[in-house]
Amino acid sequence: MITKYFLKIVVSSLLVTLWGGLILLSGCKEPPPPPPPEKIEKTTPPPATAEAEENQGEAEQEKPPEYQYDPSGRREPFKTLIVEEIPEVPEVLVTPDPATVKTPLQKFDVKQLKITGIILGGLGEYARVAAPDGKSYTLLVGTLVGTHDGEVISITDNVVIVKEIYRYESGKVEEVETPLYLKPIEEEEKS
């Protein structure tokens, strides 16, 4: 019984080996040669006629217009969507500290002062000014005037120029020159 069984195994393994060898050998053939290239006939185009040229001109005119991109109404694609808005700080003047007021003329704004007279001579340049409190004061070049660290920088025959320094809460500092006229400009034009 062992021999029959053994014989079946040997025969079946031999058959499997033969079939495998046949399959392997059948796949090792050379590939078939490529087909010969097809012959292409060369033809010459027929001569162009007047009608063909007109049709060609019409075809060129019938081309659709070229497309042009119009970005109006669309957002910028490369701009970030997250926008940090920095709130604008309003330009607010810093009020001067009342403890730093040194002279009576520093209690009033420069535009509230009215020039009543100007003296030019060998002894120097002087200007007389009337304050809103009804008192009269004398100005020289270098006199401190106004609520914003103003200083008289020049006195001429008709004008006194005061330079003030405006300080804003945002940190901005601005120098402003304010002219005070002996005769206002409207009165000068009338006379």
Automatic annotation (TrEMBL):
Residues 30-74 are annotated as: Disordered. It comes from Vecturithrix granuli. This is Pilus assembly protein, PilP-like. It holds the Pfam family PilP. Gene3D superfamilies: 2.30.30.830.
